[in-house]
Write a structure and sequence with these properties.
With 419 residues, this protein is of the alpha/beta class. The chain has 2 domains: 14-213 and 399-418, Glycogen Phosphorylase B (Rossmann fold, 3-Layer(aba) Sandwich); 234-397, Glycogen Phosphorylase B (Rossmann fold, 3-Layer(aba) Sandwich). It has helices spanning 8-15, 33-47, 93-114, 128-140, 154-159, 165-180, 190-198, 249-256, 275-285, 297-306, 326-332, 346-354, 365-376, 382-397, 399-411, 415-418, and strands at residues 19-23, 51-57, 73-76, 79-84, 118-122, 143-147, 185-187, 207-209, 234-239, 264-269, 289-291, 309-313, 337-340, 357-360. Strand 7, helix 7 and strand 8 (207-209) form a beta-alpha-beta unit. Helix 11 crosses helix 14 (382-397). The longest helix is centred in the first third of the chain and has 22 residues, at 93-114. The radius of gyration is 22 Å and the shape is globular.
């Protein structure tokens, strides 16, 4: 049928069938959260009739983990996936740069040879990946969607990775160039949007605020946990990456103040670069903090259902550059939040206003200890918080709701076409 023979509705539908390239350093069945979330996004686009390719790498996220190789080219549930062989880059900055350049060069080649309507990339690899996708879109006329799960190089400056002022300036200028070509830059919070707006030229950026949904799991949530649980205690659960940006030293210091309280326990579930030092400190102080290591998503969700509070924390200032995505998974399980972020942050304000948890200042061990002690004596408040947590999830973070927004974002008119 030619376009002349189509009805107006059929012609509009035909125009919305897009060829899309989604790029991320990791893709399912690799283990970082975004690998699973991206799979849900692209499969939703496929269900809406679009042709979607994914460019990623062989599973390699966890160092020392026995990863099973996947085919280099694979049709996975109607999505064409290409995986490059890129080595693990944890703690290896030169390898990280090499991987980013390799991924970027293949991205450019695919874009030029395949001619996509839309190219989307997230912030892994940081800065260089976005620049490659922006360049590919500019050369081929594609629309560029920049999904900023965190903001670089600002995060790298906090971590010390980009502490050199000259390096930081060059990288931010490069990322600004990418952002100006994005339609839109997608961020997770109003705080992150404000950070972009404060950059030189940031007032003119096309920005959409679209937060994540709960981390998907492939298996049913089990009825039994593979480790001991103590329902008679007030149990606060941290589930996620035990890294440099969570400020978990404060947890150990707060629990040291509560050494005499056998009715309060903190559980840290996960792996990360800060875990060994935290575990050593907790053992030396003999505090009631348990380390469970990495667990499958379905086990983490089962623990969240049993926990009295889910702990969300960021080091000072980090709320401006990132939003802790574990938040949605806690809320999906009806788990109230104990958040350790600045009170002016969007997350802390929402937790307080909607009464699905409690807040403390980052680094304030005394305040955290007081909150835990007070909550242990008032556990009758928890059922109301649970209801509020579940309500917040359904209203803002359910998978169907967020995926519908991703579908609308993909097909909306370009900014340049509206001007």
């Amino acid at each position: 049928m030619s376009s002349v023979d189509m009805t107006g509705a059929e012609h509009d539908q035909e125009k919305k069938r897009l060829r899309v390239l989604a790029v991320h350093r990791y893709y399912w069945p690799d283990t970082p959260p975004y690998a699973a979330m991206l799979r849900r996004i692209v499969e939703h686009w496929r269900d809406e009739g679009h042709e979607v390719d994914v460019l990623s790498s062989q599973p390699s996220y966890k160092a020392g983990f026995k990863h099973e190789r996947c085919p280099r080219h694979e049709g996975l549930n109607g999505v064409a996936v290409e995986r490059l062989s890129l080595p693990n880059e944890t703690g290896r900055p030169l390898v990280r740069i090499f991987n980013a350049l390799r991924l970027g060069s293949v991205l450019l080649w695919k874009a030029i040879t395949r001619r996509y309507d839309v190219i989307m990339i997230s912030t892994a690899p940081p800065v260089l990946g976005g620049a490659a996708a922006a360049l590919a879109a500019r050369l081929t006329g594609a629309r560029f969607i920049y999904h900023c799960m965190d903001i670089h190089p600002e995060v790298g400056r906090v971590s010390g990775e980009f502490r050199n002022p000259a390096v930081f300036t060059v990288l931010r200028a490069l990322d600004n160039w990418s952002c100006r070509r994005a339609d839109p830059v997608v961020v997770l919070s109003r705080d992150m949007e404000a950070t972009f707006r404060e950059r030189p030229g940031g007032a003119g950026l096309a920005i959409s605020v679209l937060n994540n949904f709960s981390l998907p799991s492939e298996r049913e949530t089990p009825n039994e946990l593979p480790f001991e649980w103590h329902p008679e205690r007030l149990t606060v659960l941290f589930a996620g990456n035990i890294g440099r940006f969570q400020g978990l030293d404060t947890v150990i210091e707060a629990m040291e103040r509560l050494k005499g309280r056998e009715d309060i326990e903190f559980v840290l579930m996960g792996e990360g670069v800060a875990k060994a030092a935290l575990e050593e400190k907790a053992n030396a102080l003999e505090v009631r903090v348990r380390f469970l290591g990495h667990q499958p998503v379905e086990v983490a969700k089962a623990a969240m259902q049993r926990a009295d509070m889910g702990f969300v924390s960021l080091t000072p200032g980090m709320y401006r550059y990132a939003y802790p995505s574990k938040t949605m998974t806690y809320l999906e399980q009806g788990c109230p939040l104990l958040v350790m972020v600045e009170p002016e942050s969007e997350l802390a304000k929402d937790v307080s206003d909607r009464e699905y948890g409690l807040c403390v200042q980052p680094g304030d061990a005394e305040a955290l200890a007081n909150q835990l002690s007070g909550l242990a004596g008032n556990r009758h408040l928890l059922p109301g918080m649970r209801l509020a947590a579940a309500r917040k999830f359904e209203q803002a973070f359910s998978e169907d709701l967020v995926l519908e927004k991703w579908g609308e974002l993909l097909v909306r008119p370009r900014e340049e076409d509206l001007n």
